[in-house]
């Protein structure tokens, strides 16, 4: 189930929302449905065996503003 990031065009609130099926999200601040879907950063970690069996780790996040995770934006810590 995808989590999308939105910006409300009415009150400029930015938020994330779990969207299931044909659900139409609304702004949690003003309840407006006039939303802009934002491009979110994809974050994942890939682990593979390198030369000599050494574990190599690669992260896809372009630069985290939060020290506790690899996301560039999240509702949990409020970083944008």
Structure description:
The protein is mainly beta. The protein has one domain (3-59). Helices cover 0% and strands 31% of the residues. The chain is built from no helices and five strands. The protein has strands at 3-8, 14-18, 35-38, 45-49, 55-59. Strands 2-1-3 form a three-stranded antiparallel β-sheet, with no helix packed on it. It has a two-stranded antiparallel ribbon with strand order 4-5. A hairpin with a 5-residue loop joins strand 1 and strand 2 (14-18). The chain starts with a strand and ends in a 21-residue tail after the last strand. 5% of the residues are buried. The model is unreliable at 61-67 (pLDDT under 50).
Helices and strands, with pairings:
Blueprint: E1 3-8, E2 14-18, E3 35-38, E4 45-49, E5 55-59
Antiparallel strand pairs: 1-2, 1-3, 4-5
Give a short synopsis of this structure.
With 80 residues, the protein is mainly β.
Q: Give the DSSP E fraction (strand runs of 2 or more residues).
A: 25-35%
Number of domains: 1
Main beta-sheet annotation = 3 strands, antiparallel
Number of helices: 0
Poorly predicted segments: 61-67
Distance between the termini: 22 Å
Overall SS class: mainly beta
Strand-and-helix sequence, N→C? EEEEE
Question: Mean pLDDT, as a whole number?
Answer: 75
Q: What is the radius of gyration computed over CA atoms, rounded to a whole number of angstroms?
A: 17 Å
Overall morphology? elongated
* Strand line-up across the major sheet: 2-1-3
How many beta-strand runs? Answer: 5
Estimate the helix proportion, in percent: under 10%
């Amino acid at each position: 189930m995808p989590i999308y990031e939105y910006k409300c065009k009415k009150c400029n609130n930015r938020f994330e929302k779990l969207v299931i099926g044909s659900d139409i999200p609304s702004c949690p601040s003003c309840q407006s449905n006039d939303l802009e879907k934002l491009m979110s950063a994809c974050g994942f970690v890939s682990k593979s065996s390198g030369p000599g069996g050494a574990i190599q780790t690669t992260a896809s996040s372009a630069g985290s503003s939060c020290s506790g995770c690899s996301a560039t934006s999240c509702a949990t810590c409020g970083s944008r």
